[in-house]
Write a structure and sequence with these properties.
- An 8-stranded mixed sheet has the order 10-9-8-15-14-11-13-12, with helices on both faces. A 7-stranded parallel sheet has the order 3-4-2-5-6-1-7.
- It has 5 domains: about 5-95, no CATH class; about 100-270, P-loop containing nucleotide triphosphate hydrolases (Rossmann fold, 3-Layer(aba) Sandwich); about 280-485, P-loop containing nucleotide triphosphate hydrolases (Rossmann fold); about 520-715, no CATH class; about 720-770, no CATH class.
- Helices cover about 50% and strands about 10% of the residues.
- The protein is of the alpha/beta class.
- Helix 8 packs across helix 9 and helix 27 runs antiparallel to helix 28.
- It is built from 37 helices and 21 strands.
- It comes from Dielma fastidiosa.
- GO terms for molecular function: ATP binding; helicase activity; hydrolase activity; nucleic acid binding.
- Keywords: ATP-binding, Helicase, Hydrolase, Nucleotide-binding.
Amino acid sequence: MNTVLEKGNIIAKIRKGEDLEQIIDYVKSEIYQNGPNSSVVLEILSYFKLFQPEFLTKDEQEIISTMGLFFKHPKIESLTGSVFEMYHQQLNSEFGNDYTPMQADILKKIRDLQYFSFSAPTSTGKSFVFRHLITDCSNDVVVIVPSRALINEYYDRLNSLVDRKTVNVLTFVDRINTKHIHRNIFILTPERAKELFKNKDWLNIDLILFDEAQLSDEHSVRGLYFDSIVRRALKYFPDAKFVFAHPFVENPEAQLQKNGIEIIDTTATYKNYELKNVGQIFYTHDTTSQKFYHFGSVPITLGKRKLEANFDPIESALKKGGSVLIYVPKSHIYSKQIYGQFQKYVSMCQPINDPVAIKMIDELKEYIGASTTDKLFYNSDMLEKLRCGIVVHHGSMPLTARLILEHFTQQGFCKICFATSTLEQGINMPFDVVYLDRFEESKTLSVKNLIGRAGRSTNKPVFDFGSVVLRPNAMSRFRNVYRKKNTLSSKSRLDTTDDKMDEKYEEYKEAINSGEFSDEYNLTNKDLEKLKSDSVTTVVPTLLDMMFNGKDFVLPNAVAKEVYEDFQCLYKQYLGRELTAAEKYVFDSAIKIMIWKVHGKTFSKICQERYAYVSKVAQRRLLSKTGHQEDADNLTVRYIAGYSDIPDKELRAFPLFPADTKGKDVDYDRIVYDTYDFLDKLIGFKLSDLFYAIFHQYFIEYQDDRAERLAKFIKYGTEDPTEIWMLRYGFSFEEIEWLKPCVDSIDQSEIIFNEKIENLSDVQKSSISKFIF
């Protein structure tokens, strides 16, 4: 090591201006020889940018060239810069873009190989490569991601890159618009990917890309399902290319080993890239003294003692128009303690007047059905904070809302984002500062991914860096995590026998391994048999009699309590046991929401119904009108069960709001988050498949049309053939409301509009432009 570095205290030396030439020479030499793959070297460079920006100016352009950041178009000011510019021109002529060497290598490997598994840090632009790779394919492409939040990210970007009149970009597997479409890009979660195998006969897949593929290591049904999708895809689509991408994984070859893919050439089939585009600086924040301290990730080189900073990095970033991510527990978002805890920074965020931002906020307001004018009814604190550029982001945030918030952030309107670990899953939302108010040492990959959000890789010809702030007690734990190597298991859980999971998990695993699994119903064959039993088929007709009044569905508020009991009875048959009292409360809430959906209620209407019930809106309004405001204000809430994952024998009953909560104090946002959890995690992920299978199988067996109608409502939320086709074309119920009168005809081949489309707004017209020829 360079003698200057051996003496340590590099941070202090750079701040004081000592040995700057020797230190920068070491940095330049390291990057020239090894590329930008040392976090410590980039950390040192970040301190030059912070403390000695004038000094760095003479070498900055050469360093950017040597780092291979050709998309920044650095000025050629030295011989080294000229050499790397020649390299840039060569890559550009070969790949037709300003790729970094790492991006070009990924692209080359994917083009040359049928199987490629690799790892690369966040913020290195792998998604940029993927998007261009996907658009260059001539046939179908499948992208498999771990969450529906990431589906949004891909869907959004790809829609702006491809010719939407000739390419379907779909978040489910379907065959639509066949008269005009030449190929499809499917962006799917593992659960939705099962549809590929049902449709294999007409698919012509060039590429299957598994992004954030570390999900395969998850100790859950999802982890099992991920591996099962890989194996079945290898079997059914043997000519397709398979690419596995991970962040911060030491052994990407594990993905090939666990799925029996032969590693022909170790230098080609997998690779762990360590190159980075941005540097990072680390601070601790003493909340008692409100002081910030610099500390180095490697004490022996950067300094064994932390160094007091003479400024507040969060305040500094906000004053410069930057943005800050504060990683907090979800409970602190719900309790709103984050606003008091970070009051200093929250108060720096002034109302936004930009019309684009205001339009996004209004879109979100309409989607969730909130009010921002009446504090006593349907008031959304989330929207009020958003007007000042303060975003909250967590796993119970509805997907549509999350997409709006991600656009809001990417367009530079977000000043502070309070987020839980949902941001770790590769969503492209970089920040100038990341503050880890919560540090989970056990979740190494999560921590590294969150840290990776610090620092924007801009197109400007400058060296970019971000800042990470921790609590003082997390400093040594952070260093351990930062240095820790993350490895994936090279053996699939499909092949292990030592899993200690519940019976359903084991049943599921056995069904996947033996092929005793129904793609049509997304259930094991064993479960399907259970759902055909006499104890099920005797309940179904009684339930149908209560759900229908002649040809019409019974309205939700007229649904008898026996309906809930019958649904419970069907669920008990599936589980093979009684439900606990706590499970019943949760299940009944889910059924109520499912029945509202069956009646075509939009998400906003369901939220409003639940809010009105729990907070006694009708009674409070009546008391207010008759001059009894004090009585209205003192009315307390009705009991409503909050979302919990079931089945769970250990679950304890709890209300969403404590019994002494005043109706006027009910948090509308909590209703929104809880409703989304029910719809997405319980109804969408579990109950829909189960009840669709029950009613659809009953229809096939007994030809009772009501069973088929109910099955369609459970699956689609409608039985109307036009509406079902519109859903298959990717329209939401909110869009169907205004678009349906404009549809002349719709089927698998195309959608034909009538003259009423002339009356649509410009925004509405733009959302259907890809279907107008």
